[in-house]
């Protein structure tokens, strides 16, 4: 079973529209939609914003729906000057950038007593997602690298530079690392896929409704093509 966690309501709605829905279940105020997408058994859900919502959502997918693969989609801010708005970033790994126990000697981002600094994506899923996106969305660039997540919207140049310097990440958002963390603890495959919405420094001037519509098109195309190959 494949779990798909979306961040944008319209994106989740489009995926549901394209599904053969068999059952909708409400758990912890979240709506889990189970059925078939691209011929595969999936559960689609919007987690809500932030790491706690994302982690709760992931654990429910594991406990109640017994998923063994999780795909997280949504938008993110770029941390690499070469990555343009609209491009797609696929995670190699994920770090919770707002975890700071450095006073005890841990590096920033390290969760104390965890056996890993970052939460890795499934390498085969990463490779497959890149190949699929290059075919499904040839009008945008596909990037692979680290995703950092925190319970804050990054909009200052100072914070952006810190994330680049400390984590060498490709993009920043608010849920992916929590999803990857929960997947790691449950020993299931996971990948984070994000469309770039801004430069994470408040400098971009974008027609957001137009961007969101394009991001949803790209995301839905990619998800459907990726699911069919898993």
TrEMBL record:
Keywords: Amino-acid biosynthesis, Glycosidase, Hydrolase, Methionine biosynthesis. One of its GO terms (molecular function) is methylthioadenosine nucleosidase activity. InterPro entries: MTA_SAH_Nsdase, Nucleoside_phosphorylase_d, Nucleoside_phosphorylase_sf. It comes from the Bacteria. Pfam families: PNP_UDP_1. Residues 2-227 form the Nucleoside phosphorylase domain. The keyword Amino-acid biosynthesis applies. One of its GO terms (cellular component) is cytosol. GO terms for biological process: L-methionine salvage from methylthioadenosine; L-methionine salvage from S-adenosylmethionine; nucleoside catabolic process. It comes from Sellimonas intestinalis. This is adenosylhomocysteine nucleosidase. Pathway: Amino-acid biosynthesis; L-methionine biosynthesis via salvage pathway; S-methyl-5-thio-alpha-D-ribose 1-phosphate from S-methyl-5'-thioadenosine (hydrolase route): step 1/2. Signal peptide: none annotated. Its EC number is 3.2.2.9. The keyword Amino-acid biosynthesis applies. CDD domains: MTAN. It is an enzyme of class 3 (hydrolase).
